Amino acid sequence: MSGLFEPTLYMVKGMAILDSDGNRLLTKYYDPTIFPSVKEEKKFEKQLFNRANAEITMINRLTCVYRSNVDLYFYVIGSSQENELILQSVLNCLYESVSTILRKNVEKRTLLDNLDIIMLAFDEICDGGIPLETDPQVVAQRVSLRVEESPFNDQTVTQVLQSAREQLKWSLLK
Amino acid sequence: MTEVKGGSNPYQCSDKTSVLQEARVFNETPVNVKRSTHVLTKILYLLNQGETLGTKEATDVFFAMTKLFQSNDIILRRLVYLGIKELCSVAEDTIIVTSSLTKDMTGREDQYRASAIRALCRITDASMLQAVERYMKQAMVDRTSGVSSAALVSCRHIAQHSPDVVKRWVAEVQEAVHSDNVMVQYHGLGMLYQIRKSDKLAVTKMVSKLISSGMRSPYAICLLIRIVAKLIAEEESSAGERSHLMEFLESMLRHKSEMVVYEAANAVVALSAATTTTTTTTTSRDLVTAISVLQLFLFAAVRTLGKVAMTQPAAVTACNLDLENLLQDVNRSIATLAITTLLKTGSEGSIDRLMRSIAAFLNDISDEFKIVVVEALRSLALQYPRKQALLMGQLADMLRNEGGLAYKEAIASTIITIIEDNPDAKEKGLDHLCEFIEDCEHTTLAVRILHLLGKEGPRTSRPARYIRFIYNRVILEVSFIYNRVILENAAVRAAAVSVLARFGAQCPDLLPNILVLLQRCMLDTEDEVRDRSTYYHAVLSTRDPAIIARCILNPPMYSLSSLERALLSYLSSDTTKAFDASCVPAAPPPAASASLSSAASSITAAISGPEDVTSAVPALQQEKRSVSMHDNSAPVELTESETEYVVRCVKHTFLGHIILQFDCTNTLNDQLLEDVSVVVEEDGSNWQILQTLPCASLPYSCPGTCYVLLAIPEDIMSTTGTFTACLKFQVRDCDPITGEPETEDGYGDDYTLEDIEISVSDHVSAAQRSNFAAAWEELGPGSELEDTFALTSLSSLAEAVTQVTNFLGMQPCDRSEKVPDGKNSHTLYLAGTYRGGQSVLVRAKLALSDGVAMQLTVRSTDPAVSEVIASAVG
Fold first, then answer.
1. Is the bond leading into B30 cis (omega within 30 degrees of zero)?
2. Do B82 and A123 count as a contact with CB atoms less than 8 A apart?
3. How open is the CA angle B570-B573-B575, to the nearest 5 degrees?
């Protein structure tokens, strides 16, 4: 074993958000040498999902830290030698930012409704494997581009009614 | 989100073609922000799902996307940046957006600038960098931390493909390192190290400056720790600097951020692991501090601890209590790591407790972890023989549970190891294994266990009880055939039949029953099973101990290649006489051949096989047919390894001859040796040197071989001897570089080698006897010779066993080479084959009494051979 790391900024090998069936909602892998194609990526995600009871686990020589809420599963993946606490802080940032953006409604439906913002947040947290920002407040603020808008100002009355009906339907279906 | 289909995911059912159609909405003027945002999100989602676009499609989307720059909606613009980053690797002519992005990155809107920089750096190549260089430099020292970070990170990406450009920005990067912002500082340090890393001196300088100035960002400190650790490991800095750096690492063990503490502890441990063999950079005190720190947050550190435990278990003992708490952890991988660490460090007293915990969670973990546990149990069992019964019970439980082949194999071989190590555990272990093969679906494993039963079972106190298990293997298959389910395959049945025969051969009171069983086996559907049972039935029915012993207990084990050679030469000669199998040498025991081949491969000069040797020595060609060959003995060094000429000798023994093969290497690069030969002389006059075969030329570092052919004296008592050896050659000086000789003629020279000894072991080859007692009885007392010796120079039984074994060159049987601890006497059984194919057995009773007393009894098919062996010792 060589316990000494090559000092580098590239600490994150991947980030993923999966749903309760283990399907990918949003994933990003930063090291093309690990997974040559989408097939391997998805296989890895299945393995990841099947070991979901572990806050931290090792799969294919990768250290994966994990956190979940309702029907969403958040993962941050690093090399097996990576400092787990750094990965944990990146995961924490990912989760907290998403939670702030979704106003604490961390679930699949709201996430998909705000997928554009979540994508931007994803991009703000990690750029090509380098953790760009680890403070969830800062991330949320950098992508919180809709806050100043009132939720109703550019919707007609019918649209508002429509969305209210929709919301009701969903809360009943759940 | 207007269309809600496919459950709760509005993006699920969108397919590539329709989405690309929808992308037309980008072209509308004025931009339809809402629709465009939605469609762009869809495209990004599709790409993220693993959908790939062709170059044409990507380029089309890319160009449509550029239209969206007309809108000033922030979200849309940011999504466009994302789109650019995603598509730039596929689409063509992405350079077109450079001006738009440059405008955004220099604009006043902070929301755009950071992302625009990152997008821009993705599409620019080295040549384009010139144009944006000024802006990049500005951005790096921008007071908005996001912009500064973005610039630094992009700069790091650029450094991957054009490191030279980036080097010009070092002043700005340096300024960023001293930023107040946590992330900027971290990115700055990463970038600075990237620029400096090829220059060791600059890195050292940078590190010592940063250590003294102190950094705020925990991420930056983690990175700094790694840089420091690397510096220490490279061992190029002076001792003073090193201790300074170590001091820094140690001080970081007390940092307020856990992340930093863990990183530092990791570095200290890794350094100590890396340097224990070379220098002791890290003192044990450092290690102790690191260990106590790791104790604080074991959760993340347990894996690292596991690694330390492999090399320095004592250092980890301090954490045993915490590790035991971790066994209750819900995370099974952590619990497994904890338990294996504990098993490595634990004491005898804690084993009972650990076993209970293992049983509790073993079912929840995957096979690979289970194997780790089994390996740990194995080493534990060897370490604490008194706990073997307990461990055995645990292993048996594990064997009964679910698991793959690799896992079961690991358990079975662990049990087998225990059985072999401790005779007291034998019966219990065999019981467990018997139970296991009752429903074992792995053929190889079942066969292996059956074989072990055959070897060990008959010698236990009640062999009869194993018969049921073995015969079940044959019977069950038959009943399964009726159900059209074949579980036990033919290999298992055939193995079971052989094992039955072994029981029959060794347990006379069971013989009648076994004959009945074998008779039933003759009805089997499989040829091999029928053949074996018929054969064994016939052999056992003779009730002749000699035949039974020869055919069942100690079947001849020929070296297959030699057998083939002997058969071929038999076919080409007179076939009216019966084939004489005694001239075929026995196969070397597997362990010995493994060590032999490793020894052979480790030396540089290739040792040629017996085939090559005979063809190399023409004098032997004509009598090749009658020749029986022993396998080559291990090479003997005739020179010190660091001398001018290195010579190794390999002895090949034939029926009437010995060939000495000399592998010579010339280690002088300014000499070319020619006409190299080894001259041997015996001090007595019994041996006759028939032929000497020189090596024509021996250039620098190319091994060459020469041979000497000796005739073995007729008188069997004088077949040992000592030879003086001397290397004779012609030297020609040559150019050290080209190896071209400088002189026309060489001059003669010689070089004295160490003496060559031909001893008894050169005439004997090791042979396997799976049942020594039967073989011993078979040879009978007719040719027995007995003598007593006092080996005063030896102080332990184990030493005596190795000495005698090596001296006679024979194979220990029945695991008699292992001397149990704390015994005063031991019996060693050896088996071998003499040069002419006569089998030789030796029983050496050893007793410890002021040195070692040995009573040696030799039996052989030829009395003369017994005499040679008996007289050899002494």
1. yes
2. yes
3. 70
Per-residue confidence (pLDDT) for residue B481, from 0 to 100? 43
Q: What is the residue extent of each domain of chain B?
A: 16-234, 243-346, 347-437, 614-758, 763-872
Contact B647, B662 (CB under 8 A): yes
Interface list for B 81-140 with A (CB within 8 A): 82, 85, 111, 114-115, 118
Closest chain A residue by Cα to residue B78: A120
Closest-CA residue of chain A to B7: A109
Q: How far is CA B264 from CA A3, B34, B257, B289, B302, in A?
A: 12, 50, 11, 11, 15
In A, which residues are within 8 Å of B308 by CB distance? none
Q: Measured between CB atoms, does A55 come within 8 Å of chain B?
A: yes
Nearest to B156 by CA among B130, B117, B127: B117
Looking at CATH, the fold of the domain delimited by B763-872 is given as TATA-Binding Protein (3.30.310)
Same fold, B16-234 and B243-346: yes
Distance, in Å, from the CA atom of B782 to the CA atom of A128, rounded to the nearest integer, reads: 85
Chain B interface includes A56 (CB < 8 A)? yes
Whether pLDDT at A151 is above 50: no
pLDDT value of position A93: 92
How many other C-beta atoms are found inside a 10 Å radius of the C-beta of residue B407?
21
Average pLDDT over residues A53-68: 79
Nearest Cα to Cα of residue A18 among A80, A63, A70, A56:
A70
Question: ipTM of this complex > 0.85?
Answer: no
CB contact under 8 A, A56 and B115: no
Interface test with A, best of B12, B39, B45 (most A CBs within 10 A): B45
A162: closest chain B residue by CA: B2
Q: Which fold has domain B243-346?
A: Leucine-rich Repeat Variant (1.25.10)
Q: Per-block average pLDDT, block size 10, for chain B (874 residues)?
A: 47 76 83 87 88 86 87 86 86 81 81 86 79 85 88 87 82 87 90 87 87 86 89 72 81 80 80 55 56 52 61 61 63 67 69 71 70 78 74 78 78 82 77 77 79 80 77 61 50 82 81 83 80 86 77 71 77 74 58 38 37 52 45 70 81 78 82 84 76 82 82 77 85 78 79 83 77 79 82 81 82 78 82 79 84 85 81 71
B7: contact with A, CB 8 A cutoff? no
For B174-212, letters b (16+ CB in 10 Å) and e give: eebbebebbbbbbbbbbbbbbbbbeeeeebbebbbebbe
Smallest CA–CA distance, residue A10 to chain B, in Å, is 9
**Calpha distance A172→A168 (Å, rounded):** 6
> Read out DSSP for B544-578?
-HHHHIIIIIS---B-HHHHHHHHHHHHHS--SSP
Whether A52 contacts chain B with CB within 8 A: no
Residues of A in contact with B333 (CB under 8 A): 54, 56-58
Q: Is A40 on the interface with B (CB under 8 A)?
A: no
Binding-face residues of A in 108-167 toward B, CB within 8 A: 108-109, 112-113, 115-117, 119-120, 123, 127-128, 130-135, 138, 142-143, 145-146, 166
Structurally, at CATH architecture level, domain B614-758 sits in Sandwich (2.60)
Give me the CATH code for the B16-234 domain, please: 1.25.10.10
Residues of B in contact with A24 (CB under 8 A): 48-49
Task: Note the pTM of the prediction, 2 decimals.
Answer: 0.49
pLDDT of residue A91: 92
* Tokens read off for A4: 């000494």
Whether A130 and B190 lie within 8 Å, measured CB to CB: yes
Beta-carbon contacts below 8 Å between A and B: 152
The length of chain A in residues reads 174
Please give the DSSP secondary-structure letter assigned to residue B629: -
